[in-house]
Design a protein that fits this description.
Number of helices: 2
Number of strands: 2
Low-confidence stretches: none
Protein name: LapA family protein
Strand order of the largest sheet: 1-2
Pfam family, one: LapA_dom
Keywords: Cell membrane, Membrane, Transmembrane, Transmembrane helix
Mean pLDDT: 80
Shape: flat
InterPro entries: LapA_dom
Largest sheet: 2 strands, antiparallel
Helix content: 55-70%
């Protein structure tokens, strides 16, 4: 519940910031050029991209920890020759 409230407060603050900075401006990046794009659109897209990437990284880390705690064998780059049979 605490995360939900913090997330909502953060989303509201981002929305207020974006609405107060709603001037069009030009963006050039490598081969792309956007002559007139809203600051609000850039701000919101950047925040969403960061949230999505953060969620993906957190999900991968959680899976890795679950596999370690469950004793699941993770694949290695050594292949089958790295398996040692003592018999």
């Amino acid at each position: 519940m605490k995360r939900l409230i913090l997330g909502l407060v953060f989303a509201i603050l981002v929305a207020i910031f974006a609405l107060q900075n709603n001037r069009p401006f030009a963006i050039r990046f490598l081969f792309w050029q956007f002559p007139r794009i809203s600051e609000a659109l850039v701000i919101i897209a950047s925040v969403l991209l960061g949230v999505i990437l953060g969620a993906i990284l957190a999900w991968r880390e959680r899976l890795r920890r679950q596999n370690q705690s469950a004793g699941t064998v993770t694949p290695t780059s050594h292949g089958p020759e790295s398996i040692h049979d003592p018999h």
